Amino acid sequence: MSKDVLKSEKKETNISSKVALKLFEEMLNIRRFEEKAGQLYGQGMIGGFCHLYIGQEAVAVGMQHVMKEGDSVITTYRDHGLMLSCGSDPKIVLAELMGRIDGCSKGKGGSMHMFDLKNHFYGGHGIVGAPVPLGTGIAFANKYRGNNNVCLTYFGDGAANQGQVYESFNMAALWRLPVVYIIENNEYAMGTSVKRSSYATDLYHRGESMGIPGMQVNGMDVQEVITGGREALDYVRSGKGPIIVEMKTYRYRGHSMSDPAKYRSKEEVEKFKENKDPIETLRKFILDNNFADKDKLKEMDKDIRAKLNEVVEFCKNSPEPDYDELWTDVYQ
Ligand SMILES: Cc1ncc(C[n+]2csc(CCOP(=O)(O)OP(=O)(O)O)c2C)c(N)n1
Predict the structure, then answer these.
(1) Which of 27, 48, 63, 287, by CA, is between 20 and 30 Å from 178?
(2) Alpha-helix residue ranges (DSSP H) falling in the chain
């Protein structure tokens, strides 16, 4: 691979039925979890901010599929789906959302402050763009230790216009750090569309001046994410330095639960749901290839919902943190 910009449009061709069903289950897990989070928010069981990942599931699940043990993930506040894809227990994610003691931050952080070191998930950061220098630092540590691990550093299209992003790019290119920068281009930064905020809207070009290759991937199709992701990880793991992967995706819900999303039309959202939904696309692939029938897929959904109900029950019974907890875990 040269330093030229790449365009990955290939689909994974020889995906097995076992893998297809696993990917389907993982994406559906995230979808149902996020729908439930939205519902609980509406019932007042979740407070503060809550940014849902619905529509973007193929990105997290596809990339996780091509990562190796030891690789790590860091992202912004739209973090529940990515954390679940890292293998975190849904109970600790939901308990955190609901402000309960069994959450990963003992219920003190909520939606934007997730962390799971055991599963190599470095957060969950509420500051736009913050994961970029942090992820670059993790990549620096990996290179220093010579462990051949890669850090997958996620951020949004809005964050892509920040200065700290380019400072990080420069250092990563200079020191050939093992980092995949994943821009989740879901077309909006709060209420501002990419077209209104960015002169150049093909964000995978953004590292060119520093010799960082870029790749644009259809983030609505898990098989394309897998092909592109594998190429990107191979490139970085071979010691050539960072790469930028722009995942073209779309979020179905507003920026956060408090956003009615009036800056876009219902028709626009419906068009994505009807024609590009990552779960429906894989469902069709599974059915067309006779990997499973409709009933089996319905059964999987039923199981996922039943397990999720158990998670909700667990979290409802988990106590809120004591008042004294306010004074623990404080950096001094
Ligand atoms: C430094 C900073 N500025 C502003 C905000 C407020 N803010 C939160 S999310 C957001 C939009 C970011 O959009 P994008 O990077 O595209 O990510 P997305 O929400 O689409 O996943 C803004 C401006 C913030 N959290 N941090």
Answers:
(1) 27
(2) 17-42, 57-66, 80-85, 90-97, 131-145, 163-174, 194-197, 222-235, 266-275, 278-288, 294-317
